[in-house]
Design goal:
With 496 residues, the chain is an alpha+beta fold. It has 3 domains: 41 residues, no CATH class; 69 residues, no CATH class; 252 residues, Fido-like domain (Fic-like fold), CATH 1.10.3290.10. Helices cover 48% and strands 8% of the residues. It contains 20 helices and 11 strands. Strands 6-7-5-4-9-8 form a 6-stranded mixed beta sheet. A 3-stranded antiparallel beta sheet has the order 1-3-2, sandwiched between helices. α5 crosses α7, α11 crosses α13 and α15 runs antiparallel to α16. The longest helix is centred in the middle third of the chain and has 17 residues.
Length: 496
């Protein structure tokens, strides 16, 4: 027995050690807290001690009990601990209240806490506990049961974090554990229906949260909230309307090349400007990089060609199909990314996880209904671009597609398309991240209207002259530490 212990539990001691503790209690060296528990600490310090040594105390007093209900759902936080044991009782301890209920002992999947005779339930058992009806006299200050909203949100977070195959496997294991625990069939069926609704197979199941309702109907509800916020901002904000200065050849052809060059550069398809020019305008495919060459051509053709250049979204019901068709043409040289087919595996960029594959079509269709809630031209273009960027519906090519959709909306309204030069890449991506993560619309609207004004400051009739002027404005530079994007007029004014 260690002499520096501040908590002595008979359950952890040999008979000889227990007798030694008893002698110290009689001698006044230790305080008896209750039968089988002693400490040298003064009484005011007992609550903090019991909270700190919670697992030891509970394992000693209630061996083979299983953490249950809200205590399992919340990870044993709080001063009230719910345990499943073979009897019903409420035990008051210093700083802790233990509520015991009749329930099965540990079953397959339950795990020991700190290697002691106290068990934490499997995720399956925790979910089944969460479905249990509240008992009479449930403490309103700290109810043992979990609300429908809490359970729905937890299930959705599990599905999103682990993926749908793992969620399906969890759903199957719930039935197995439910049989071991002799869970009533009605409770098992209700949990199964709820998990099915989250997977989108039970759209008839009434959900408790907006998030859950969206999942049941097949769309990403938080993303739709974000799109609605952007719509409101676009309705209120007075955006500039800049007439297209490159609407006819040769200016439109030159503009399409620069649009494709910079759009591909943003995504990492980097060519020297002369080589990219030969690819787009002369059809010279690089023998060393044929697929990258076709990426240049894929954006260029849609930015220039009459079939796509000014093809806005006129039929919101066909929004998703229009995206498929555009993507299939743009990525035709990359069969490995499945051109025109929506993703089947979730995609992630940094800390952002985009819309789940199962929710892509539903989210695009719901979001498509918003397109005609804003004015044609720049407002609709910015909404369409953000929808595609945020859903990220394909395995690859989403950024380029989003900018093509944006620019087509601008051309359809006779407004100037937008070029995002290399040096503006970080500002462009940052404003998208701000909108995605913090729902801040101002940086997005400011950045995009600013870069459209910059785009309008050039004349596109002479491609050599335009490239030379853009070079002098630092458009092709990469380092924001060393360079600032300049306006053509005057050559020295910073773009802020």
């Amino acid at each position: 027995m260690r002499q520096d212990d501040v908590l002595y539990l008979n359950a952890e001691l040999s008979p000889a050690e227990q007798r030694a503790v008893q002698r110290r209690v009689v001698a006044g060296e230790l305080h008896r807290v209750r039968a089988g528990i002693a400490t040298p600490l003064p009484e005011p310090e007992w609550p903090a001690l019991f909270k700190r040594e919670k697992a030891r105390v509970l394992a000693a007093l209630f061996p083979d009990a299983v953490v249950a209900f809200r205590s399992a759902f919340d990870g044993m936080v709080g001063n009230t601990i719910y345990l499943a044991a073979g009897y019903r009782r409420v035990v008051e301890l210093p700083g802790l209240k233990v509520s015991l209920s009749v329930g099965a002992g540990p079953v397959d999947g339950d795990t020991k806490i700190q290697g002691r005779q106290l068990y934490f339930p499997s995720r399956e058992r925790m979910l089944l506990d969460a479905m249990a009806p509240p008992p009479r006299g449930n403490d309103p200050a700290y109810p043992r049961n979990i609300s429908a909203e809490e359970l729905e949100e937890r299930l959705i977070s599990i599905c999103d974090a682990r993926g749908e195959p793992a969620f399906l496997a969890l759903r199957d294991r719930v039935k197995v554990v439910g049989a071991l625990l002799k869970t009533p069939k009605t409770r098992l069926d209700e949990l199964d229906r709820l998990m099915g609704a989250i997977l989108g197979t039970r759209p008839d199941r009434k959900m408790a949260t907006t998030l859950g309702a969206g999942r049941a109907r097949g769309y990403d509800a938080p993303r739709m909230d974000l799109f609605h916020k952007l719509v409101q901002a676009l309705k209120v904000e007075e955006l500039p309307r800049i007439t297209d200065v490159a609407g006819a050849p040769p200016a439109s052809t030159h503009f399409a090349f620069l649009e494709s060059y910079f759009s591909n550069f943003i995504e990492g398809t980097e060519f020297e400007i002369g080589e990219a020019r030969a690819i787009a305008l002369e059809g010279r495919i690089s023998e060393l990089r044929p697929k990258d060459s076709h990426d240049i051509q894929g954006v260029f053709e849609q930015a220039r060609g009459p079939a796509w250049r000014a093809r806005g979204i006129t039929d919101i019901r066909a929004f998703d199909e229009t995206l498929r068709e555009r993507h299939a043409l743009m990525m035709a040289a990359r069969p490995e990314v499945l051109p025109g087919e929506f993703k089947t595996v979730r995609n992630v960029a940094g800390n952002t996880t985009f819309v789940e594959p199962r929710l892509v079509v539903g989210t695009l269709r719901e979001a498509g209904l918003l397109l005609h809630d804003v004015d044609a031209g720049l407002p609709r273009a910015l909404l369409a671009m953000f929808i595609v960027s945020e859903v990220h519906p394909f395995n690859d090519g989403n950024g380029r597609l989003a900018r093509l959709v944006m620019n087509s909306e601008l051309s359809a309204a006779g407004e100037l398309r937008i070029i995002v030069p290399t040096l503006y890449r970080e500002q462009y991506l940052d404003c998208l991240r701000e909108l995605t993560r913090a729902a801040r619309t101002e940086p997005y609207l400011d950045a995009m209207t600013n870069i459209q004004r910059w785009t309008a400051a050039f004349s596109y009739g002479d491609l050599d002259a335009t490239i030379d002027l853009m070079r002098r404005c630092n458009a092709f530079e990469r380092s924001l530490v060393k360079h600032r994007l300049l306006w053509p007029e005057g050559g020295g004014e910073l773009l802020t």
